[in-house]
Amino acid sequence: MPDLLTVSGLTLAYPGGTRALDGVDLRLGEGEFLSLVGPSGCGKSTLLRIIAGLLAPTSGTLSWGRRPGRGGIGFVFQEPTLMPWARVAANVRLPLDLAGVPQAEADARVAEQLARVGLFEFESAFPRELSGGMRMRVALARALVTKPALLLLDEPFAALDEITRFKLNDDLLALWRAEGFTAVFVTHSVFESVYLSSRVAIMSARPGRVVADIPIPLAHPRTAALRTQADYGALCRDVSAALARAMGQEAA
Amino acid sequence: MVAGRIARALVPLALGAAVLGFWEWAVRAWEVPPFVLPPPSSIATALASDWRILADSTWLTLTITLQAFCLAVVSGVALAMLFAQSRLLAAALYPYAVVLQVTPIVAIAPLVIIWVGYERVNLALLILAWVVAFFPILSNTTLGLAAVDPNLRDLFRLYGASRWQVVWRLQFPSALPYILAGMKVSGGLALIGAVVAEFVAGSGTASGLAWRIIESGNRLNIPRLFAALFLLAALGVMIFALLSWVQKRLLGRWHESEVGRP
Ligand SMILES: Nc1ncnc2c1ncn2[C@@H]1O[C@H](COP(=O)(O)OP(=O)(O)O)[C@@H](O)[C@H]1O
Ligand SMILES: [Mg+2]
After folding, report:
1. A54 touches chain B (CB under 8 A)
2. Protein residues placing their CB within 5 Å of the ion ligand 2
3. How far is the alpha carbon of B186 from chain A, nearest alpha carbon, in Å?
4. Per-residue pLDDT tens for A31-78?
5. End-to-end CA distance of chain B
6. In terms of domains, do A128 and A196 share one?
7. For residue A21, which atom of ligand 1 is closest to its CA?
8. What is the pLDDT of residues B6-42, one digit of tens each?
9. Contact B159/A54, CB-based, under 8 Å?
């Protein structure tokens, strides 16, 4: 698997002195689904923002295998972050509008993407008329409408109830398998990270570093039955133990 | 639902009718002289018989108010957006906007009228009404522009939005509910500004509703004074109702302040 991105020696100090990241090394293969797990405040969001190009690192490098162009990176935040004044279709069309894609082509792509996240008949609803899970689907559709090579997700399902979260996990996995993007998924949940990922990277408490890297060789398609399987349980235990060590290191 | 809505519209009307009825009765029963408090019937008569004069004055006051209001909206929104582009400019100019706001309008009115000249007194009224109406738009728009969701801003950056796209597709719609709230305040203030300025201009140079009030007072034509007062209040209510309607239309289904209201 060729590398999409290699992060080396990444350090970030915020103005005011908070060192959020200190020497992050991480490689990301093309088509991988990588989860980032770590204690709150360890710099996961900061790392995603640096990868997205929204924040410049204090030192260290990002080297891209194939640098994603405009629209080549999708971002999903913990909040759906929709424009409340725009209907669902207009929200999803935003990245295409900003890039000046012709109206007819943009509309066709929006319709297709909305169908993929199961929201076709809601295209003319306003965000506040949708449930939390549906709003998150709109955010997913918006992030995927440009066919990005890389999708960054920052605890996207943390605020949802468990039933909705499980459903969205399955839908995200199906989208990943169908569309072939590379995903970096930040989560608090060990179970969620193992269920979704091909690899889980563990970060230490602030200033964050990647301290463990655990491959998840579970077969696809993954379904609800996996959640009770022994190998899934064993991997969850491994990740939990690595996370506990990562947090213990900081306390020592 | 419908019955409730009709009742809600009828109750204030019924109350108004009752008050007018009592007023009419009380003035006659206690023989209050008409130059102290005329009965509603003679106010209505004055409204009808002096209609030409009063209508001209109403029209003048309305035009000045609306012009000042429109100027205030355009200049207030534009300046706030300019401030949002440059922090230095904002820091340099905002204090002066505040000075303009906190200085009582009656205190600067004579100066403005002298500068502009008595022969162009309507322009002076326009400027003064604008000064009063301008600040709520500026401060509300500034507030609205600062309330842009930072994640949405990042998203626009991620997709390489131009500065212009950020202004029109993100900042302006984010600030719109704030701008509309500011417009409601500003609409009322524009009317107040136009009236106060005319009071200061005084003796016959301007001939809006305020002048009719002064004139009627001097001549002890109290029914006409009340008629002018009534028209002034009606203007104020009309402006407020119009702006509420615009607010409802523009925010419609997307904003909390308008969803789920009757
Ligand atoms: N804009 C900022 N300015 C200063 N400090 C920040 C800023 N954003 C985050 N931090 C700090 O950097 C650390 C890492 O933040 P973050 O990346 O959000 O962590 P995580 O997403 O893992 O919870 C935290 O201690 C946080 O308080
Ligand atoms: Mg975070």
Report:
1. yes
2. A 45
3. 24
4. 999 999 999 999 999 999 999 999 999 999 999 998 888 889 999 999
5. 9
6. no
7. 14
8. 888 889 889 999 999 999 999 999 998 888 889 999 9
9. no
The residue whose two tokens read 């205030």 is B72
Structure tokens belonging to residue B222: 């109290």
Reported ipTM: 0.93
Place of tokens 């212009």: B164
Q: Which two tokens stand for residue B142?
A: 């500034």
Q: Is the CB of A54 under 6 A from ligand 1?
A: no
- The whole-angstrom separation of Cα A183 and Cα A192 is 14
How far apart are the C-alpha atoms of A6 and A188, rounded to whole Å? 23
Note the pLDDT tens digit of each residue in A82-99: 999 999 999 999 999 999
Q: Give a yes or no: residue A171 inside a domain.
A: no
Total number of residues shown for chain A:
252
Contact A84 B254 (CB under 8 A): yes
Sheet holding A59-64, edge to edge: A19-29, A3-13, A59-64
Which amino acid is residue A13, in one-letter code? A
| Structural fold of domain B38-251 | MetI-like fold (1.10.3720)
* Residues of chain B that touch chain A, judged by Cβ-Cβ distance less than 8 Å: 149, 151-152, 154-161, 165, 169-170, 173, 176, 253-256, 259
Note whether A87 and A41 are same-domain residues.
no
